[in-house]
Each structure stands twice: as structure tokens, then as C-alpha cells.
Amino acid sequence: MSDNKDHSTGGEQQPREEGGAPGRVVGTPSPAAERRLLPEGDTAAPEGAGEELDEQAAKRAERVVASLFVLAFAASVAFIAYYIGWSGRDGGMHGIERARESNLWLGGTMTLAFLAMAVGITIWVRRLMTSQPVVQERHELRADDATRESFAKTFLEGAQESGITKRPLLRRTLLLAAAPLGLAPLVLLRDLGPLPEKRLRHTYWGEAVRRAKAQGKKGVRLVVDGTNKPLKVSDFATPGGMITVVPEGIEEHSEHPLNEIAKAVTILINVPPDKMSPRMRARGWDVNGIVAYSKICTHVGCPAALYEQTTHHILCPCHQSTFDATDAAKVVFGPAARPLPQLPLAEEDGYLVATGDFPEPIGPSFWERG
Amino acid sequence: MKRFTAWRRRPWAGYAVVLAALAAIGAIYAGFTPQNGRAEAAGIAQAQEDLENGRQLYNKNCASCHGQNAEGTKDANGKPLAPSLLGVGAASVDFQVSTGRMPAMNPGAQMPRKRPIPEFDVNIKTDYHDPEQREAAEKKKAQAEKNLADLRAYIASLGGGPAVPTADQVDPDKGDAAVGGKLFRTNCAQCHNFVGSGGALTGGKYAPPLDSDDVTPTQIYEAMLTGPQAMPVFNDTTLTPENKRDIIAYLVKTREEPNPGGNGLGRIGPVSEGLAGWLIGLGLLVLAAMWITAKKPKKLKKS
Fold first, then answer.
1. Which of A125, A139, B40, B46 makes the best surface tag, with the fewest CB within 10 Å?
2. pLDDT above 70 (res A43)
3. Topology of the domain covering A204-354
4. In this structure, CATH architecture of domain B166-258
């Protein structure tokens, strides 16, 4: 304890000598000798602490612990009793009808049993067990110089004897042999799944439009996702309207309809034509203010479809990216980097049709997007 | 008498009786018809009176914001304060007033759902034991229903618009909850949550929860039809009345689903529930660890 005396907390003191461990420290001394974790003069416990107990307090604690143990006993008995007697009542063991009730009682009694036991043991340790302060010295982690020297000598001797320094041909061919194995994971990882190829660049709208054009039509009809009802321009004439649409025939003709719907899903919005920006009007992809945008957010691909008809904003619920439906879905707030791709629309026989795929890849950025 | 009996036996007597009966019916009908005309006239008068009542209610409760002729008002900068009510229809009035959103108490990002003002409060308690009290409450309720109907009729008379749906159109038992669930998840769940727990929008606006029983099927239908506040419109040609009934069936039946895991935490979703579990569970574990390892020297025995 001598070196703990007369030290103020100022930085003027010198580092202590090597190996000058304090005489009595419980726990790990700080490696930086001048910065101590314990306040000045703190000894872990007063001399002789914990060796003897206040008998009256100990008796009280003992009764508390004992009653907790009795409670744990009662709870375990209740668990068994409920399991045998009640949970199997009316229609077999743990019928599905009674699953909630039986879970509650079985779980509750078991929790009570374990918890009462644990709390009892903790109180026992804290209030009743005596403990002698134990001092354990901690040694330097660094091996002494003699050991380090002899290790280095042995290592070099081994290298000499193996001949790896003397025979470079062996050394180099061994490295050569190991190199392809090191590269093997690249090949193996690439084969974990099919490459995306061009699939991320196109949606089913493109294929559906091609199919429709082959039949001499202008484009593919838009149908309501869920009911497959084709939409007429007059059907969707109410200002402020919104609906989720997919290309007609996506469920019948595509190989993986769910995958295709997940990419092709589009929101159809009716915005007032006079509110549309000149840029968007010049594009001419709307039908009397009816516009269609990809529903997949360009940030990380959440469905962005929280359309507010008062502000004409489309909000993505994941990271609050906000797009302006009257200005080609320009990003007005949030982390999205690009506007939502717009689908070119036209009218054919009174029906709303798409005349092409989205002009750019939908959804978030990907490696080869460029 | 003898003469009458002989007359009765003539071959044309049967035809004569039929003719006489027809004549009698005609006479009676003619006697009643003017009375029917009077009843119709009375009905028209009653309708006029109802419209007048609606107009008075409008002037008292709505005109200060929506204008004397329901044309809407603007502030000094030309920014609309209250929208025009021409052509919004009975459905919109019924939705806004029966959910207590209108008359609005103070302008804000969004009008909250609240208890309707007493004149339109159709959900007052009427099951009193005291017959006198019950009668008074029932009378008040009938008046509130009449007031609401009159106001609806008045606004509808100004410019038409969607009507209040019939009871059959909003009957959850007649809808297909599976189709409704699909439509709800693709078109409504982004704002209202997949079981209708509601959610936040931009600038202090929010999508209100739909999972409590005071959100009636009629109100859900009217909201879809009219698109109140920031909500988009789902007109009857886009989502047909059957589709709307399916969505209502999904919402109402979801409310009745039990929560197998105990408290559903408002069904805010597995990620948020997991986060709550982590924070509360880990917090308790940290507290337990602190209690177990806390340093508490035992008292020395007094010597």
C-alpha cells in the first residue's frame, strides 16, 4: 500500500517501476500505472468485511430465502398438478382450443418456480454467504527476454533444418500449389445462384406490351391487382384516385407470377392535369392526369405507395423518401436518389393501356446498373 | 222480390254484376285519389321542411368555414381554408360528421376523430333503466339521426355526389374476406397497417386506426368512396361495391381474430414487436444482472 500514498490526482507523477504491482488489489490493475481505475485509497472492502454476519439480519434473510424456496416448491407442484389434472381436460392433451390457457398456466407456474429459486439464491449469496477477501497477483503478459530469445533461436533452427530457405524451388512450387485453392472460393461463390443477367433491368410490362403489339394492339391493359379487372379511362376519372395495377395476363402467362408481380407492381394515380409540371406534360405519358409509377422505392425497394391526395406526395414508409406525383415522381425528401420510374400510358378502346416497359430499371441501385 | 229473382236469372246478369263491381271500385278509387295527392303534397312539404332544417344546421355549424353557399373559403394569401362542398355528396357529409371530424374544432395538419357534437351524436347511451330517462335519450337520438339525414340531404341537394351506402352494401357477412384482404394489403395497408392499426404520414398527418369497433362498416365504405382529407379516392368503378364489401369483411373479421401470442401490442408488426421485446426483456436482464453483482458488504458484527 505504500506506493498508493501521497499521490494527488494531478499528472505530474512519474510512471511506476516495472513490476511494482500494488500490494493488495482485488481485480485487474490498470496497465497504465499513472491512471488508476479505483479512487485514491480505495480498498475493495473494509478489513475483515464479510467474515461475520449480523445474526438478526441473517435470520430475517434466511426466512425470506426459505419462503421463496417454498414458493418455488409450490409453483413446481402446481405445474405438475395443472399438467396432469387440467391441461388435458376436454378433448385430449393440450387441445388447440385451450393452447393459450394451458400455455399461460404451464409457463406461468414454471416461470414462478425458476424465478423464486433464482431470487432466493441471489439473496442467499448477497445476505448470508461470508467471503474472505482473496488476493491474487497478476503477472506480466510479456514473456521475459530469455524465453523470447530461445524461442527465436529454435524457430530459426527449425527453418534451417527444413531447408525451406535453402531450396527455393520447393518453396515456390508449394506456394504455386496453394494458390488455386485460395482462388477456388471465388468460383464456388459465383455458383451459389444464377446471375441476375438482364432480369433486374426489365419488368413484365415489357413482355406484356410486346405480346400485345404482336396482336396488333397499342399496348397492354392495366388490371387491378387482386381482382384482375381491366380499367377504363372513365373508370378511373375521379380526381384523387389511387389503385395498384399489374399488366393484364401476368398470372396466366408468366413463369413465376409472384416474382413478376413483385417487380411489375405499379401505382395508378389521378392527379389534376393543371397541377402537372411542364416537364411531365412534355413527356406525355399520362392520360388526362392519370399517371403510373413503379411502386418499388428507388432507395432500398420498399413498396412506396402512401399517396396523399392533398399534397400529391408519394411517401415510402421505410425511410420517408417522398416523391412528387405531379413532377414525374421527383424526390422531394429522403434518401432515395432517383425518381420512381414512370410507365408510359395511353388510351385504347376506352381502356388504359401501357405502351412500353419502364424506361429505366425499377427499384434500388444494383452493382451493374451503371 | 220476385221480380229481382227473375232478373237475377237472366243470362247477362253475371256481366252486369261484374260491371257494377268495377264501377264501384272505380268510384272508391276516385274517392281516395285526391287524398293521396294531398299526402304527396304533405310529403313534399315535409321534405322542404327537412331541407330547411338541413340548411339551418349547415348555417349554424358549417358555414363559418365552408361559406354561405358551401363554396369553400380561402385565406388572405389565396390558400384554401376549407374546401367547397358542392358535389361532395351525402356519403362525405355522413362520414365527416358521424366520425366527429366535422365540425372541426381547430385547424391542424389533420382533423382527428372525436365524439360528434350533441346535435349529430347518434351513438348516445339509451339503455337507461328509468323509462323517462330512456325515452328522453331515445328522442334525442332520433333527433340526431334526423339532423344528420337533413344535413346530408341539404348538401346533396346543392350538387349531388355519392350517396350513403345501403346496409346490404356494407354487410361484412356478405363479403369475401380473402379477396378483401388481398385488396387491402395492396391498396390500403401501406398507410393503415395490414390489420388496420393506422400509421404515420408526412407533416403531422396520419392514417387513422380502423381496428376499433366504433369505426363502422358504413364509415369505412364512405371513406373509400369519398377519400377524406389526404386519403386517395377509390371510386365504385375502380373498386366495385362488392370489392369494398370484401375489404369491410376483411377488416371486421380481423378485429375478431384472437392474438395467440398474448398481448398484440396493437399488432404493429413482428419487427416492432421484436424491438419492444428486446428493449424490455434486455432491460430487465440488465437490471437483474446489476442486482446480482451489486457490491454490498455485509455488516460487521458489533463486538
1. A139
2. no
3. Rieske Iron-sulfur Protein (2.102.10)
4. Orthogonal Bundle (1.10)
